[in-house]
Inverse folding.
């Protein structure tokens, strides 16, 4: 039987799953309305659906913060921990260009560039790219939530220019972040299959010890030390 270590507690997995479903529900309903891809009747229905997804997402996030503040603190502590190895990750993007292109003919044309080198500095629970994504999602959710609910409840108080500003911020931040998550984050998560499985399977959110040692050695060493202390 393989040794494993807990990576994603149940509460974090539930919030991540709800966040994912609601985010794409909000994105699809918003895009269909914004680009006028539906008629007036469907537009009214989609806006109601949009508000429903927003309400669910807001409730779940607020509940998560109130009920499990320790998990929120640990997550924030992790994504804000940028040490020298976190910075060094960006020198070659954690070796991902080499992982994807190192065995192809394309690689010989780009191997002279700094970002195509193999290897990765030791990382904590999240690598530098995941930390940046985590901070991006946090700030995006805050801005989208604030602009969205303000437009819903206090639209008249904003005035024409305020409505336009809030509306454009709401739409384009959602589009940019969704494209990044869809075409960068998700493919890279699928490459790290044990991490993906630990987040979405029905069982415990664990990863194999060997995988943790290889991908997140600083986090693994810390986890082992804490277990020994307990």
């Amino acid at each position: 039987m393989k040794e494993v270590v807990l990576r994603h507690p149940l509460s974090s997995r539930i919030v991540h799953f709800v966040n994912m479903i609601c985010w794409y529900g909000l994105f699809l309903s918003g895009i269909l309305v914004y680009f006028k891809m539906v008629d007036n009747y469907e537009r009214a229905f989609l806006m109601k659906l949009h508000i429903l997804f927003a309400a669910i997402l807001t409730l779940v996030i607020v509940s998560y913060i109130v009920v499990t503040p320790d998990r929120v603190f640990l997550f924030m502590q992790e994504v804000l921990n940028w040490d020298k190895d976190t910075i060094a990750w960006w020198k070659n993007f954690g070796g991902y260009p080499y992982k994807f292109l190192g065995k192809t003919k394309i690689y010989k044309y780009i191997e002279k560039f700094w970002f195509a080198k193999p290897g990765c500095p030791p990382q904590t629970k999240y690598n530098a790219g995941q930390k940046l994504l985590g901070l991006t999602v946090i700030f995006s959710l805050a801005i989208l939530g604030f602009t969205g609910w303000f437009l819903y409840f206090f639209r008249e108080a904003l005035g024409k220019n305020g409505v336009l500003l809030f509306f454009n911020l709401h739409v384009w931040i959602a589009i940019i972040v969704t494209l990044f998550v869809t075409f960068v984050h998700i493919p890279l998560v699928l490459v790290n299959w044990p991490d993906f499985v630990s987040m979405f399977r029905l069982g415990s959110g664990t990863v194999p010890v060997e995988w943790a040692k290889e991908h997140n050695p600083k986090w693994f060493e810390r986890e082992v030390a804490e277990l020994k202390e307990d």
Remarks:
- The CA atoms of residues 112 and 228 lie 45 Å apart.
- The first strand starts at residue 4 and ends at 6.
- The chain has a mean pLDDT of 91.
